[in-house]
């Protein structure tokens, strides 16, 4: 079943009086349960596409349907609700709050959903268990390694039970060994049925996904699709 449906999407930016076409007539479908890597060099358009899939931005032309629902004309508050309910983000820089411990960082999005403490706690513990961090749940970020912090970020995403996990260069700030461990977590989550979209410029990382979409100059390179 199709989860992400992108039809003839284009996105423009004006820089220094010049119009830049960041996405040029892109069409792409991603099904429930897929593990897809979107790969390309810096400036290729992959991050722009991620922002549209993540409801952080909207297309200037074309259509984007998420789970059958048209996204293009939604208001900011509606987009924020979809981000909170359906999309989990994992970033290169972790985007955690240093004043909170691991448990509190994972719990935070559930507080925004106005869940009670009784509802939140088992979800947080289950998410931390999925990334092998239950024993570190009361540790501050300063007491965790980079790899452990990224696992906290993944757990924060899992706690919200999103339809999609969007991972933007999730191993970019990590050494190769730790990065491989993070990729194994994503593989395991995908085997459990999670839909994962991985943004990367690194071919070796992209090849860990089950499907690779290549980007260049705002367009998909169909010749390189597996």
UniProtKB/TrEMBL annotation:
A Pfam family this chain is assigned to: ABC_tran
Q: Does the keyword Transport apply?
A: yes
Q: Which InterPro entries match?
A: AAA+_ATPase, ABC_transporter-like_ATP-bd, ABC_transporter-like_CS, ABC_transpr_LolD-like, MacB-like_ATP-bd, P-loop_NTPase
Concerning PANTHER family, the annotation shows: ABC TRANSPORTER ABCH.1 (PTHR24220:SF86), IMPORT ATP-BINDING PROTEIN (PTHR24220)
UniProtKB keywords: ATP-binding, Nucleotide-binding, Transport
Query: What residues does the ABC transporter domain cover?
Result: 4-225
Query: Which SMART domains does the annotation name?
Result: AAA
Supply one GO molecular-function term: ATP binding
Q: Does the keyword ATP-binding apply?
A: yes
Its protein name is: ATP-binding cassette domain-containing protein
């Amino acid at each position: 079943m199709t989860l992400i449906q992108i039809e003839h999407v284009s996105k423009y930016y004006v820089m220094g009086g010049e119009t830049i076409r960041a996405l040029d007539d892109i069409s792409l479908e991603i099904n429930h349960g897929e593990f897809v890597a979107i790969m390309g060099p810096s400036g290729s358009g992959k991050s722009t596409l991620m922002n549209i899939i993540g409801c952080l931005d909207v297309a200037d032309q074309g259509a984007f349907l998420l789970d059958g629902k048209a996204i293009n004309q939604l208001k900011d508050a509606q987009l924020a609700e979809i981000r909170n309910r359906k999309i989990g983000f994992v970033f290169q820089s972790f985007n955690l709050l240093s004043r909170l411990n691991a448990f509190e960082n994972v719990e935070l999005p559930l507080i925004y959903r106005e869940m009670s403490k009784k509802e939140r706690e088992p979800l947080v513990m289950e998410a931390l268990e999925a990334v092998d961090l239950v024993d570190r749940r009361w540790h501050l970020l300063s007491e965790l390694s980079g790899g452990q912090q990224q696992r906290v970020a993944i757990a924060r995403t899992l706690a919200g039970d999103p339809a999609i996990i969007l991972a933007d260069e999730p191993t970019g700030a990590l050494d190769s060994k730790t990065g491989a461990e993070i990729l194994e977590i994503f593989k395991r989550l995908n085997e459990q049925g999670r839909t994962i979209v991985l943004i990367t410029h690194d071919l070796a990382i992209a090849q860990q996904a089950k499907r690779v979409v290549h980007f260049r100059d705002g367009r998909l390179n169909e010749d390189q699709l597996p």
